[in-house]
Structure formats: structure tokens, C-alpha cells
Write a structure and sequence with these properties.
Number of helices: 18
Distance between the termini: 59 Å
Helix content: 40-55%
CATH architecture of the largest domain: 6 Propeller
Structural class: alpha+beta
Strand content: 15-25%
CATH class of the largest domain: Mainly Beta
Number of domains: 3
Amino acid sequence: MKKIVALILLSLIVFTQSADVLQANTAYKTFTEDGYGRYVETQTAYTVSETIVRFGDELFTQAQDMKISRSGFIYVADTGNGRVLVGTKSGEFVRAFGEDVLQKPTGLFISHDDLVYVADENKMKVFVFTENGELVNEFGRPEGILFGETANFVPQKVAVDKRDNVYIISRGNANGIIQINANTGQFLGYYAPNATAVSPLTAFRKLIFTEEQLDKMLDVVPSTSTNINIDEKGLVYNVSQGERVQALRKLNVAGRNILDTRVQDDFPVSVEIGSLENIFVGAEDGFIYEYTSEGNLLFVFGGQDDGRQRVGLFRRLSALAVDDNDHLYALDSDRNQIQLFKPTEFADLVHEALYLYQNGDYEASKGPWEEVIRLNGLFDFAYQGLGEALYKEEQYGEALTAFRQAKYITGYSNAFWEVRNLWMREHIMTLIFIIVLIVVLVKVYGYFERKTKTVKTFLDKLTEKYRLTFFQDVAFIRHMIKHPLNTLYSIQYENKGSVFSASFWLIILYVMYIIDRYFTGFIFRNVVEGEYALGMDTALFFGLFALVVGSNYLITTINDGEGKFKHVFIGFVYSFMPYFLFKPWTILISNVLTLNEQYLLSLANTLIYAWVAVLIFMMIKEMNDYTIRETIKIIFITIFMMIITLLSLFIIYILVVQMVQFVVSVFNEGVYRFENR
């Protein structure tokens, strides 16, 4: 009995400790991204340790920006009160300045020489103060033709690099980020404008509208950046809002984005850089995203406050700041407070592994990565980091397994290249011997078959005795390779082939489609590994095939086509002969190719599908006795009919859903009234 009680107590202790590690008691959940770009819940990465609502007795109102100086003070652009507030991390008041100069400060930045740059929307200037609040310089609207006579200068955000170049985001100026030299005040030009986001509708209008009509349309202009920051290396980070816009960019000196990352939020408002060159992006709705320096998502946390004033949530997040201890400060302009987030042990473990790896200590980084995986087996980035470390140590087999677990295609391809090279070195002679042996056996078989015709005689007798018509019809498809026109003629006028044989090949086509979808090489697969949707795949395959064949038959029937449905069905299926013949080889080969040979697979698949398309074109033309021009017209009309059919089915689906919802709502209303009589 004592042993049982001790075991229960031990289990409870372990469970409690595990629960503390897995998830802290927070008002929000923390997510990471798996290898397919989907959010998965993970352990809490940051917890709120303190909330600052004032500096001493000084409250801030509608504050829009915040920075932390090297001396550890928090600088807040107190927008509603037209000043800059300075306080300690514990909320003590230090100083306030700018009351006599500023009207609406919306952005600030502390430069490498400890000057405070403040962007003021109402004054339409950027003011420069010392840390103590003494005004030393200001920049107004740049003069000169290059800036643009009608270009706006309404500074919202500002940043400064070590060369004393000032970067200014101006409201309504879509030309790019404004660059001014801090020493001379000279306008240096526009930097890294956002690309114009043109919708498909706008592109279509440009094709069909006249110049007069286009002049009456609103100009399509790129969106303006919403915030900017600069790291110790001089790289510029900026965030933007809008559709089809790069929400987060990491820009080099030339203004080229070197980051391929898509922020899963339409309203980013702030960007901050940590000590590991990790990037924090704050969104207006309260979500905070942490990325590595290469753009891999580590954590997403925070969220929208529902009115219950819970810590870790925001009404309107406006700024982020990171101190020397990697503590994250988040400013809520609606609640007028700063929340201090501290990393948990789990986040520290991830950061430790990332730090070791980025500094080239691959052997030391393996331990932390493995511990992260032990705590959370769904943290795919940890597998990627472990795979990179193993690859650097030339442990290619283990790296291959880790990269596959991480769904990291590039790393998997590189590791597989090395594994394949090692295998080829060890087995090349055996492989050559097997290939030569197969070629010799095929040649010997062909020679004796031509001399004796044993197999042909046996098959002829077997066919004559048992009348294997079905198997003959099935085998008849082989003639589509060498003599497609004769084969199509035989199908239509000599009753070669049959509906049963075509149905057999259609099932084979379906099976090959499924194999191609789920068993193509990992590098080239387009589905989530381990997840199967056979029901949907089956419905889509047979539904699409029926739609194509049915639409084509109906269109050819009303356009004097001579093909019967039976012949059209057989012809369509038999036209996939190149697919039946060559696709199994491409599926097989895809499992031994890397990204470097991707063009070979793409070329082979293109040739297969092009060959099938040509045979289908020939089938429609020959079976209906059309000219080439008529055949092209029929194909376009068939496609149009398919689109109309799909739209009709979609409309019917919407109507049925609405009718069902109406019936359910009426029934629920009746039940409610009956129960409350």
C-alpha cells in the first residue's frame, strides 16, 4: 500500500512539473509554425511579469511609440499630451520634455550617439533632442525637385543609422521611405518603396479600358510603411499594411528585401530586433510574432482584449521595445499601459539553441534542440535546427531524418544528395552489373522470341481457345503510342476496345493518380505527409472526369459531331496511354532526385501531359470529323460549359444551404415558442 501511495504521489509531482513546463497559466495561447506553415500550439514562450500604467504620477495618453535607451530608461512618445516621457523599468518618473515644441509626437528613435529623434505629425517635422531633453536640431519638408512638389511630408515614424542617415515614414507619401542626412539636412532620396499591389480586376480594366476611362479611375498607388527600425549592422526593418503587400521587410543598403517571410497578419504596426537578431512584429490586434533572423517563425502570442482587462492581451498594440535582457515591452495606446513580457524557460531553451547554432557551435546546439523536441515533439523548427547541426557535422543520415520531420525541403534535399553520393560510391559497380544483366536478358529474350515465337504462339492459342476479348481490348490501348489515328478509327468503326476495358483503365488511372499524389518523392510531394483525403480525391477525380467527358459529348452532339458517347468515353481513357506508360517511372524516379534535378522531373511530366493533350485533341478531331479550327472552337466551348456547370452547382449548393438554415431556424423558433407557452 505504501508503494502504491508513493507511486501516485510521484506521478502527481511529475505531472505537475510537466504541466508547468508545457503551459503557464496565461490568458492567451502561444503558437508556433510547423513545416507546412500551419499554426500549432506550443508551450508558453513569454509571460507578463509587470504592467506599467504611469511614470510616477505622470500618465501617458494615446502613446504611439516607445524605445529603450542604452542606459535602460524607457522613452514614450506621449502623443495625447504632446511630449516625451522618460521613466525607469519599474515605473519611476525620470523626466518629461518637448511640451513647448511638440504637438503630436507619433514616432521616436534613439540613435547610436544617444540623440532622441521625434517625428511630429502636426508640426510636420522631425525634432532632435539630447537624452536630457534639450532641442538640438529639427528637419522640415525637404526642398528640391527630387522630393516632389506635391509629395507629402507628415512624419509618422523615424529611424537613424550609424552614418547619421535619417529614415522617415511620411503619411500619404507612397514614393518610399524618406532619407535625410542628419548633419546637413540634405534630402538623399526615397528608399525601398512598396511595390504597387494591382488586383486582377484592375489588371483586366487596364487591358480593356481606354486611356480616358483609365484617367477617370483612382490611381493605383503602393501602400505606405507603418513602422521602421534599424539593427546594429545597419539593416533596415519595416512593416506595412495592405493586401498583396510584403508586411515585413529586411532591407540591405540597396533597399532590397533579403527576407522571405509572410506575416500572418494584415495590420502590423511595430517591428523590434532582439539580441539574437530575432525579429519581433507587433500587430494592431495585439498579436506578437517572433521570427529568427532568417524569417522562421518561432512564436505567436498575445491577442485582442475582450474587455476583461486581462494581462497579455491588448486593445490596440502600438509599439514594441526590447531591453538588454531580452525582455519585451509592449505598449497599448488604448489602455495607456506598458506590459513587460519575460521569456519562459522553454523560450530561453529555444534561444540558447539558436544562439549556439548561429555562432557555429553545432555540437553544443544539438543538446538544447533535442531538449526542445523532448518537451514538444511538434516544434518543427527544433527539428530543422537539429538537422542543420547534424548536417554541418556530416551526419547526413540523421540530418535527413530530422529535416523530414521538420518538413524542410531544402535541407532534406541537401542531406539526401550526400546520402545518395555515399550510396553510389559503395554500390556503383553492383548497380552497373544489374543494369547490364537486365539489358542482356532483354536482348536474349528478344532474339529467341524472334526465332521461335514461343510466347506469341502460346498467347494466340490461349486467345483462340478461351476467346479473351476483354484482355484483347485492354491490351489494344498499346497501339495509341505508335498509331493513334488508326487506333481511334478502329475504336469508332471496328468496335475495338470496349466500355469494360476503358473502365478498367480508368480505375488504373485513378490508382496512379492516388499513387502520384501520396507516394511521389518527399521533396516533390504537394500534400501533407501522413494525411489522406481519399474520399475527396475520389469525388474530385471521377467528378472532374465525368464533367469533362459529359461536357465534350454534349457540345459535339449539338455541333454535328459524329462520335457516340461510348466511343468518346473509350477515346478519352485510351488517350492517357503515355501517362500509363511513363508516369510510374517519374513517380519512382522522384524518390531518388533532389532539388538540383527538379528540372528533369518537370520536363518529363510536361512531356507526358503534353502528349496526352495532343492525343485528346486528335481524338476529338477524328471521332467527330472536325477540322483543326473546329476542334479548337469545340475545346473552348467545352471549357466554357464546364465553368458554367460548376458555377450552377455552386449556386445550387448555396441555395440548398440557405434553405436548410431557414428550415432549422424556423424549427428552433417553433420549439422555443412551444416551450415558453
